[in-house]
Amino acid sequence: MELKDLKPAEGSRKNRKRVGRGHAAGQGKTAGRGMNGQKSRSGGGKGAGFEGGQTPLARRLPKLPGFRNINRVEYLPVNVSRLEEKFEAGDVVDGASLKAKGIIKHEDALVKVLGDGDITKSLTIKVDKVSASAKAKIEAAGGKVEEPC
Hints:
The protein is of the alpha/beta class.
């Protein structure tokens, strides 16, 4: 047997029914659409999203989801507990070191250190923002916070 000898099983392939081609073809005149009415006509039928006259979902929902501030600045959160487990005492915490430790993906991303957890190591923090509770915990552990101007 060769590739040229392959063919589909007998009766598995059928030609489609060609409608509207006269009475003798079996689907002449109305072409299977019935007699009169909206669905028998060209382009007839309800549009997508029609709900039987009820106000459609697309019109019931508000057009815009609330207020979006186009000037919003998004910071990546990093907790002091994460710094405690990833860094040694005396280390400098900045974008490059956070990326090297696998805490953030891009070293130029904006980072904010948050105060969840405890810290015992003295670290030098050089990130974009530090919360008040995180700053208190870092300074209590002997570290210092250097925020950019």
